[in-house]
Structures
1.
Amino acid sequence: MLEMKKSFFAVALCMVCAISAFIGLNTKKEMDDLLLMNIEG
């Protein structure tokens, strides 16, 4: 029973990490207007 709980938590942790990485890589990072004004070009 304890081994089943350990494996469940390991799988759940891996799923949380994978989902958070997927969301983090797919969010579009837009630059703030103030930041764009400070860039000299």
2.
Amino acid sequence: MNTKQLQYFLITVQKGSIAAAARELDIAQPAISQQLANLEREMSAVLFERSFRGVSLTKAGQIFLKHAETITKNINEAKLELQQIISNHSGTVRVGMLPSIGNVLSMPLIAEVNRYHPHIKLDISTGPSYAVKEWLKTNQLDIALTYEQEIDHDFMSTFPLIEEYMYLVVGCNDNSANYHQLLNRDSVNFWELSQFELLMPSLKDALGQLINIYEQKTGVALKHDKAYSGQLMTGLRQVIQGEGLMILPSSAMYHLEESNVVKSLKIEQPEMKRLVLATTNKSMRMSDATLQMLNVIKSVTAHEQACDHWRGRLAISYSSIANKSPLNIGVV
């Protein structure tokens, strides 16, 4: 007895004739007749009464029907469980992040997944903080990397990654008075920011909200009337051209610093910082692939922090990530 025979038997019972079963299965009628005859021979019982009107179950057939349904149900359930195990460990994981986070994490994250987790497909989307939050809420993402200003505990589960430092970013432009003024400095007090024309996002964005919090906290009003598109790369181009300064984490511009295109000064008194978190939607069951991706994200975050690309204090302990990834994390 095999699953094909069980399928042919159950469809024939359901349709009431071998001819109808053949049409349903889109196979030749003699093939079904042969398989049913083999099944009856193996069971040593006549399962169908055949007539010109079709077929009906014998008493033996009625008994066999109960067992056939149970066996088929068990086989289907076994297949489903196995498919869930396979899909949980593989498949696509959709990760959303802000451009500044994407600048530091995207490439090493892709490299890590391709090298050590080829069974997982990583699908990265980038957008403003409010868009990433909405994507997670509407189940368009499995993981969202965002800031504490955008956290909604009603639907988000959170996994802290790093408390990043904020910097004043100025273009290395010899024609810029701001550059010459800040050339020999490594830090700047928050109140001093009021001296400069800043390119700043609106309060709709998490960074705009953070800056507003510090303005209210310190009583220092900043100048942010310069035209700004809200696009990170466009803003950095304006900074490089000397059209204004920006407040950013190192994740957003470390690559430009390494190329001596921009200079950054750590904002102090008070120290300006914000918490970055990985978040998931509480209403969605996390697959094993998603859990694996969370561990990869933690490992890559620690690696980039150790490389000084993402400057700040890790919000995850080394012990929780040291054995999760082949990355050489280093001392944190």
3.
Amino acid sequence: MLVDLPLDQLRDYRPEVPEPDDFDDFWAATLAQARSTPTAATSEPADTPVTAPRVEDVTFPGFGGEPVRAWFVAPPVPGPLPCVVELIGYGGGRGLPHERLGWAAAGYASLVMDTRGQASTWGSGGGTPDPHGSGPAHPGVMTRGIESPQTYYYRRLVTDAVRAVDHVLTRPDVDPDRVAAVGTSQGGGLALATGALHGRVAAVVADVPFLCHLERAVSITDAAPYSEVASYLAVHRGAAEQVFRTLSYVDGVVMARRICAPTMISVALMDDVCPPSTVFAAANAIPVPPTVEVYPFNGHEGGGQEQWLRSVRWLGEVLA
């Protein structure tokens, strides 16, 4: 069933979502610290039977210079190529190379970033730990380190995503003027953040994005992973103000206000995981109105493979 406001109201939904006064300084300092580490990226041929596209097993420095795994997949054509930095949904990881061939088949290089400390809920796994402790937290990562924006898990994951773009910009086989950040659900939220925080991102595709309008999301859906925050607050009854302050540093609405690149966002009106009002709140906050694809009768699967086709065509036009 429809889980949120009617579509005509969603298209005009522009809530007052507060942002921290030090938001820009916080992220500037975080990224400067990550970029100051001397750790170098490594790359070697992947152990896979896939031979038509070129597949490399990449390790690049993420938050704090910590190693983040990725697949780099490129079609067997001369470069430099347009490149997609692909960011993964909640609980998943980079998987196996043969699962990540779509963008190469469409003529793009892609860097598929592993997800630190996740990759064990669905899919084929990953290999990037999150070597940071945490205070008391609900199972999952939504409340890991939520006592402070400095210790919050998503500070590290967003930084990894920005550093993934840094990595592809150093590659001679990538056209630095045609790099896109793309993802679904958590990956969509990370794509919005990457587009906001990295000035060289040329396009953003965020499908049914997570991490948007977080205070509303926690209050109107009991689906995981937003329910992790509600469960945490049910125990830590006096922590709501600090929790939502921490979340405001990664909120997709606050990030969206800073996106300058062309953006496509998809939304599903029966999505109880990432409610449509939270997605439209982010879409409507982008200074240059994005392309919004609406799927009236879908849940969190969104547009599925149909949306992938639309995003490939859209990126072809934008990056041309």
